[in-house]
Amino acid sequence: MQSVAPLVIYLFVVVISILDGFAAPVSYAIVPRYATDLGKANSALSMSGEAVQLVGWGLGGLLFTTIGLLPTTFIILILYIISSFLMLLLPKAEVEVLESETNLEILLKGWKLVARDPRLRLFVSANLLEIFSNTIWVSSIILVFVTELLNETESYWGYSNTAYSIGIIISGLIAFRLSEKFLAAKWESILFSLVGMVIVTLTILYFPNAQMFLLFSALVGMLSQLKEVPESVFLQETVEENNLVNVYSVLEVISTLSFSVFVLLMSYTTESFGISISFWLSAICLMIETILIYIRRDYFK
After folding, report:
1. What is the H or E stretch that residue 45 is in?
2. Cα–Cα distance measured from residue 47 to residue 174, given in angstroms and rounded to the nearest whole number
3. How far apart are CA 215 and CA 154, in angstroms?
4. pTM score, two decimals?
5. Distance in angstroms (rounded) separating the CA atoms of residues 131 and 99
6. Greatest pairwise CA separation for the chain in angstroms
7. N or C: which end of the chain has fewer CB within 10 A?
């Protein structure tokens, strides 16, 4: 196996993270410019991304064990180049540019939009609650559940991840097929998913079963996707096309920073008070989000 300095690997990971930080907001911000059916477009985007990740996990591990680190890294770079080239093939979209805006104003534009619009503030609040809730699925926490309550090995966590991804893909197909019905009842779809996730989370905790855990993992993936599609369309319909990338950039920053902090908090909670408390905190966050969405359901009409 080739020897690579740890610093080089860390720098490579940092560069990829920075590039992903640019790509993620743009990927969703350009959807309204090229798609007329936002429901189908967002379903297809999420579903294809999850399918690629699912295949990539297995294929990446296989490549690493068979050909080594450097050739695998080279293949990754080639795939990034191909992806970038395909993006260049998209038709050019007209973008309104305000010459009077300074660089600082452009940088703060998304933050101002989020601060002023109550619908965007609701979106951020709900997103923060869900991010905190989802931290129980991080490896450092769910591994405790798998090993202590299910009495399974660490590899079982990988199976649950696969089941979760399969659930997202299946749900994406459903959302793609029934996009009009989901978008006609945005808040109802979101509420149904949240209530379902609360029930599944507590069921996993109080009825720990190795086989059922895989099924519930897939179910959580399905419910999260049924919630994500109407949320994405809501955001894309709420914000003007020219401002979408600014708002998505803000959401990406908030999500990344909050996820890092919440993982630390949930890890500390799990270590200090046990996995049961962590699951209950997750369920409570989902309950609060459910109440919040129901109270502000008129925003989704």
Report:
1. helix 38-67
2. 10
3. 18
4. 0.83
5. 37
6. 62
7. C
| Backbone angles phi and psi of 93, in degrees to 5 | -105, 145
Q: Token pair for residue 51?
A: 């399918």
Count of CB atoms situated within 10 Å of the CB of 287: 16
pLDDT in tens, the chain (301 residues): 456 677 877 887 788 877 777 777 777 788 888 887 888 888 888 888 778 877 777 777 778 788 887 888 888 888 888 888 888 888 776 666 555 666 667 678 889 999 999 999 999 999 999 999 999 888 778 888 888 888 888 777 778 888 888 888 888 888 888 888 888 888 999 999 999 999 999 999 898 888 899 999 999 989 988 888 888 889 988 988 888 888 988 998 899 899 999 999 999 999 999 999 999 999 999 999 999 999 999 988 7
CATH fold for the domain made of 6-300: Growth Hormone; Chain: A; (1.20.1250)
d(CA 146, CA 157): 7
Q: Which residue has the tokens 């994406």?
A: 172
Is there a contact between 283 and 195 (Cβ–Cβ < 8 Å)? no
Domain boundaries, the chain: 6-300
Distance (Å, whole) CA 93 – CA 67: 41
226 touches 86 (CB < 8 A): no
> DSSP label at 119?
H
